[in-house]
Design a protein that fits this description.
The complex is a heterodimer.
Chain A (H helix, E strand, L loop, with lengths): L3 E4 L2 E4 L5 E7 L4 E9 L6 E7 L5 E2 L8 E7 L2 E6 L8 E9 L6 E3 L3 E5 L1
Parallel strand pairs in A: 2-11
Antiparallel strand pairs in A: 1-3, 3-8, 4-5, 4-9, 5-6, 7-8, 9-10, 9-11
Chain B lengths: L3 E4 L2 E5 L4 E7 L6 E6 L5 E7 L5 E4 L2 E6 L4 E6 L8 E8 L8 E3 L3 E6 L1
Parallel strand pairs in B: 2-11
Antiparallel strand pairs in B: 1-3, 3-8, 4-5, 4-9, 6-7, 7-8, 9-10, 9-11
The chains are: A mainly beta, B mainly beta.
Amino acid sequence: GAVVSQHPSRVICKSGTSVKIECRSLDFQATTMFWYRQFPKQSLMLMATSNEGSKATYEQGVEKDKFLINHASLTLSTLTVTSAHPEDSSFYICSAQGQGEVYGYTFGSGTRLTVV
Amino acid sequence: ELKVEQNPLFLSMQEGKNYTIYCNYSTTSDRLYWYRQDPGKSLESLFVLLSNGAVKQEGRLMASLDTKARLSTLHITAAVHDLSATYFCAVDMRGFGNEKLTFGTGTRLTIIP
């Protein structure tokens, strides 16, 4: 089945630094990738949608200059949290959507970001 | 704006009992997903419901979709402790010009021995 690899699984960074999270589709081409944020005991909130080779579409209220998304190839999307602050601490999950037989949404394993 | 509501938000039930989780959504869609999430983990896909009247079953879980009522249910039969988790429904607006999932509020299920 379709597999999405997300790294790192956990990261602790100092306030003011940047963190990059990678999301790779291992056995299919992901035409669209989605980035979600989940705070403790809450649901998943979509941050942005990215299509290969084009700019990401951000949801209302998400700062595009703070959460940089790059979808440079059909198998890789990255989310960079710039100038991280403690309030950015959260669980970040990517999801990839393929074409053809890979029709649904495949989720990565998530990244627990802690900003200290 | 699409709203997806689940109830109950919290459910504590004894092993061996049956119960149903409800997922209501506010806009037309014919595609709905159910996911399970264990603490600290990502989502595990349970069911994909792709048409009105769709019913899927796996083990003690059964999901159904009524697109006219904009309602999906996740029924648990003879619950066991291993089913303790948070369950999310998610509505897919693909085909209606909006290719993304909108998640429900989640139902935290605790099975008591």
